[in-house]
Amino acid sequence: MQSSQANTDVILNDCKIPSELLAPLVSHLLTFARRYQPLFARSEQREHCLVVLEGLLGNARRKTLEPIATERDLPRRPIQRFVGSGKWDDEAVMTELRQHVVEELGEPDGVITLDSSGFQKKGAESCGVKRQWCGRLGKTENCQVGMYLGYATSKGHTLIDHELVVPKEWCEDAGKRVKCDVPAKLAFRASWEVATDMLARHGSELPHKWVVADAEFGKSGDFLKRMAKQGEHY
Predict the structure, then answer these.
(1) Whole-number average pLDDT of the chain
(2) 23, 167, 185, 194: most buried by Cβ count inside 10 Å?
(3) Angstrom distance (rounded) from CA 26 to CA 31
(4) Is the pLDDT of residue 217 over 60?
(5) Mapping DSSP to helix (H, G, I), strand (E, B) and coil, where does residue 31 land?
(6) 130-134 and 111-120 as β-strands: parallel, antiparallel, unpaired?
(7) How much is the average pLDDT of 66-85?
(8) Is 184 strand, coil or helix?
(9) Is 222 exposed, middle or buried (0-12, 13-18, 19+ CB in 10 A)?
């Protein structure tokens, strides 16, 4: 076990990117972020935004908020609050992102993708966590599941929207909802409902010809009916 960990450490150390090579990327990132920063009302929110974005490009082994803050000698709680429960309009940021994507990548024969992804968790405190199917591991495991809407054309591909699939047990537990800031208006929806709701919200904004999804979606008659009702080719 120790030998395996040692080998992992060696590999990870070899994968570190020198900061001088990252410098030009950070410059590009700042230019990219400039479009979005006015959407954050407070100056510290704009600063936290850059800290998180730069941290995702950095050499921290885990790209979670605590090591990102630690790498910059910053207290972790303000960064965690900014991402987890900060009072900024995430929908305004996502709307700007979609407009940006259409400007850069939009094509009439674009493809919208729908897919879920599971994230293994050890504890029971993360919002929406439970023992459920984790596609990344190919087995039932303690995890969170997110649904993702992507967009692809000959010019490139990117993610457009995302949403946590909150299990029914969480939706019915008032204590858990309050502790993890689950919105009071959120009601339980199956994975396919979360996916088609995202498509209904954003499909008209994205020039596209097809919608593609994992074969698991095709097993749901309700999903296929909703796709036909929304006038999508799939």
Answers:
(1) 88
(2) 194
(3) 9
(4) yes
(5) helix
(6) unpaired
(7) 88
(8) coil
(9) exposed
Q: For residues 110 and 56, which has the higher predicted lDDT (pLDDT)?
A: 110
Q: What are the structure tokens assigned to 68, written together?
A: 């990102």
Q: How far apart are CA 227 and CA 233, in angstroms?
A: 8
Residue 232 phi/psi, 5° resolution?
A: -95, 145
Report the distance separating Cα 119 and Cα 136, nearest Å.
8
Instruction: Number of helices (H) and strands (E) in the chain: give both, helices first.
Output: 11, 5
Instruction: State how beta strands 111-120 and 210-213 pair.
Output: parallel
CA 143 to chain centre: 15
Distance in angstroms (rounded) separating the CA atoms of residues 102 and 70: 36
Residue 33 tokens read as 């972020």
Identity of the residue numbered 100: H
pLDDT digits (tens, 9 = 90+) for 191-204: 999 999 999 999 99
3-state class (DSSP) for residue 139: strand
Cβ proximity of 36 and 93 under 8 Å: yes
pTM above 0.90, yes or no: no
Residues 182 and 163: beta-carbon distance below 8 Å: no
Q: Radius of gyration (Cα) for the chain, nearest Å?
A: 20
Residue 21: HSE in the Cβ half-sphere, 13 Å Cα cutoff: 7
Cβ-contact 211, 232 below 8 angstroms = yes
Residue 141: predicted pLDDT? 92
Span between the terminal Cα atoms of the chain, in Å = 47
